[in-house]
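[step 3/7] inverse_fold.run input=structure_tokens len=94
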């Protein structure tokens, strides 16, 4: 039996970038909230409900969806969200 074990990084990054976690905003007032469905089963139902509840409270909400949960977000989708939103709720469900 081979005792050597090789772990592979699923992100395919040979040297991942480390970033400080951003502090959450003091308030959501006046901000645009993005709700991202990552494509898991029934995630759309959850995201629709979150967006509805936030909208009823008067928040500005934009919804987005990844084409599949098996891959990272396409660059153009990530750029659109970053440009149009101040904060993001990324949701999944099974």
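[step 3/7] decode complete -> sequence:
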């Amino acid at each position: 039996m081979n005792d050597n074990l090789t772990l592979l990084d699923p992100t395919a990054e040979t040297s991942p970038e480390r970033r400080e976690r951003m502090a959450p905003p003091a308030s959501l007032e006046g901000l645009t909230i993005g709700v991202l469905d990552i494509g898991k089963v029934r995630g759309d139902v959850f995201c629709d409900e979150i967006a509805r509840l936030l909208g009823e409270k008067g928040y500005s909400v934009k919804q987005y969806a990844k084409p599949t949960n098996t891959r990272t977000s396409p660059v153009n989708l990530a750029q659109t969200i970053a440009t149009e939103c101040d904060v993001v709720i990324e949701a999944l469900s099974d």
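[step 4/7] annotate
The chain has a mean pLDDT of 86.
The chain is about 25% helix and 20% strand.
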